[in-house]
Amino acid sequence: MEKKLFFFDIDGTLTDRSTGQVVPSAKRALELLEEQGHFVSIATGRAHYKCRGLLEELGLENMVCSGGMGVVIKNKLVKNTPLDKKEALAVIHQAEEQGVGVLIATDDSEKVYGKNDLFRQQVGPRQESTEYFIDPTFNVDEAADIFKFYLALPKEQDHLIPEPKNFSKLRFVPEYTMCQHDNKKQGILDVLEYFDRPAQDVVVFGDDVNDLVMFDKRWTSIAMGNAVDELKAQADYVTDRNVDDGIYNACRKFGWI
């Protein structure tokens, strides 16, 4: 059997969106893929530190994370690239000039920093586990790295900050915007380079518009039955819904397990 490199999105692909739990048949499919000698990885926009627990739950050792700029192979973080600092600072200072609250992550952790608490005053706390450090002497220009930052920018004010060139403005809740890398395909390409493997050996699974970037004609792209129409249109194959054993059924169909 030809050995493949598999990359799986998390929400709506490996996990049931209604419960947040890993679909049992998906976990079993991953176990069988590894038993067959395939490379198996998750591919997510989430920061590295947020995914370690899921990696352990799945029994995996590999992942593309941090919007494609983080790569873990055999449980070792081999890459985790911060944002382009010059552009990040330009966006942050533009937001500050317009009175928009900003919180900044300077490392791979749940810590965020700000010189004031304007972000929480404007839109409330972040809707995820966060450790806040508010210090009037904090100077983002002196930070060694910027991994991501958050803008108190409601959807109706999104136009106030133009789209960056080297990273993305992402919105998962109406109240605020997150600026981070959003290119999972780059992480996949980094894994191919690491192992010196051809692109045609790659198989990706996804369900939402943020997975479009990793659907590439050089490899096999599979959309879940619950995927958005835009992703299905770009897929080489559309499997069953994730909660209806979509991953397991696709892997059986193609003879990978």
Question: How would you describe this protein?
Answer:
With 257 residues, the protein is an alpha/beta fold. It has helices spanning 24-35, 48-58, 85-97, 118-123, 184-195, 229-234, 246-253, and strands at residues 5-8, 39-43, 63-65, 70-73, 76-80, 102-105, 111-114, 131-134, 148-151, 168-170, 177-180, 202-206, 220-223, 237-238. Strand 7, helix 4 and strand 8 (131-134) form a beta-alpha-beta unit. The N and C termini lie close together (10 Å).
What's the short story on this structure?
Helix content is 26%, strand content 21%. The protein has helices at residues 24-35, 48-58, 85-97, 118-123, 184-195, 229-234, 246-253, and strands spanning 5-8, 39-43, 63-65, 70-73, 76-80, 102-105, 111-114, 131-134, 148-151, 168-170, 177-180, 202-206, 220-223, 237-238.
The H/E string reads EHEHEEEHEEHEEEEHEEHEH
| Terminal-residue CA separation | 10 Å
Task: Provide the helix percentage.
Answer: 25-40%
Which regions contain 5 or more consecutive residues with pLDDT less than 50? none
Strand content: 15-25%
Strand order of the largest sheet: 5-4-3-2-1-12-13-14
Arithmetic mean of pLDDT:
96
Q: From the alpha carbons, calculate the radius of gyration and give it in angstroms.
A: 19 Å
Q: Tell me the structural class.
A: alpha/beta
* Overall form: elongated
Number of distinct beta strands? 14
Major sheet attributes: 8 strands, mixed
Number of helices: 7
Organism: Enterococcus avium ATCC 14025
GO molecular function: magnesium ion binding; phosphatase activity
InterPro entries: HAD-like_sf, HAD_sf
Pfam families: Hydrolase_3
